[in-house]
Amino acid sequence: MSSVHTAMNSFGFPGIVGLAPMAGITDFCFRKICFDWGADFAYTEMISAESIVRNIAVEHLLPSKVESNVAIQIFGSDPCKIADAAALVESKGPWININAACPVRKVVSKGAGGALLRDLKKLRQVVRCTKSAVKKPLTVKVRLGWDRDEVDRIIQICLEEGADGLEIHTRTVKQLYGGRAKRNLDLSKWKAPIALSGDVFTAQDFHTYVMRGASAVLVARGALRKPWIFREIKGFQSTELSQIGRAFLIHIFLKRAVKGDRSLYEMRQFVRGYTNGMRNAREFRERFMKIKDCDSMIEAVAEFYGLSVNQFNHMVKAELFKDRALEK
Ligand SMILES: Cc1cc2nc3c(=O)[nH]c(=O)nc-3n(C[C@H](O)[C@H](O)[C@H](O)COP(=O)(O)O)c2cc1C
Prior knowledge:
- The protein is an alpha/beta fold.
- It folds into two domains: 17-233, Aldolase class I (TIM Barrel), CATH 3.20.20; 241-322, Putative flavin oxidoreducatase, domain 2 (Non-ribosomal Peptide Synthetase Peptidyl Carrier Protein, Chain A, Orthogonal Bundle), CATH 1.10.1200.80.
- Helices cover 41% and strands 12% of the residues.
- Helix 1 (28-37) runs antiparallel to helix 10, helix 3 (79-89) runs parallel beside helix 5 (120-133) and helix 10 (241-259) runs antiparallel to helix 14.
């Protein structure tokens, strides 16, 4: 066994709070919204190593040219394929992240994602092969273990094989999203950067992890429920209704610009978060779910937040094109 890799580790998370990877959610549009609210870094949705190697429609999943702090998350089960895939896309992001955490049956049944924690020899090979294939830093997103907490062994393996850092969802794979995430991991013995993820729904949850020694904290469902959570984590006490409405509208515009009218249906998964706890939210959501075109959606949202669509159209164009956000 090689010794734990601690030599001149220059990797650090580019900030204290990141948007966690979420398949089907953390696309370019949602990342932009979360960066605007204060997220320091983010991840792509998980991308299959197989698709990258076979060059099957992955371009839209990779970070856009205008994003600088978006790591590329890859999943797979074959160490060589993951390594090849990482080498093929590493130029598109600041670091490569391997998914050894996903508990979804479709992924685990193929030996990928969280299944790598059931076979730690395989996990070791994956990290070893990938590390030797890439020049950019490599991190591994793991859970505490497959069905029990063996996180120390997992961290040890990843670091021995040269991982530059880890992201840990503090549940086991078998727990899925049930029970409470573990808050009191002892990270003091590890020199590498370790970001923690699990049940971050408030600024207080974030601080609890930081006080426990996390190098950074990842927010997943908390960002879906309340995209402006990053602003609260950064110390802003209140967020105006008009700011939330504006973000919601920008999100719809971005989705339409990037994905066309089918984005209408994708926006449905965000309406609860943008209207959480607001007056008449229930009635609005029911109406929103029935809307069948983007223009009507924009009008309905503008009306709900008391914004004018015309004024907004100008503002959005200025906003979106000022940093050439839509340029691929
Ligand atoms: C809808 C959804 C999709 C997710 N997709 C991924 C993924 O693609 N890759 C990954 O590493 N984790 C994924 N996760 C896990 C999150 O990154 C995060 O670690 C987990 O949800 C715990 O954080 P939370 O309690 O703040 O939600 C996903 C979670 C959710 C809710």
